[in-house]
User: Fold this.
Amino acid sequence: MNSRAKGVRGELQVAHLFQKSGYKAERGQQHDGRSGHADVVGVPYIWIEVKRDQDLNVLKAIEQAERDSAGYYERTREDLLPVVIHRKNREEWKCTMRLLDLLSLSGSMPFAVAVPTDGLVTMTWSDWIRVYMAYETERSGA
Assistant:
């Protein structure tokens, strides 16, 4: 399968996961027909990078998401937390983000504690979406 088609399918699958959780998610390219958006849009506060790769370098993927979300911030002043949602063939979806970003989502960031900023955390989709939904509900005041 060519990698572009595999990428599109992955983005559609992730958008569907968010839709099943109640979000109006869609592919970023589909959103306006051009680049400059996350791979999946319609999820508040999050920059989503989707990867389907057997040999994924997660650190490089996070760095790409950080660069792209920083560029988006420069254009829009909307600050989004970068997350990479990824899977290998026949495995479940996983979510990886910086530890500091995850702690800001979970609401358990003690300001007096120094945490290495290069620390990455990977968790299953089901665990991550529970943390994210609690954060989003609290932040939106719903």
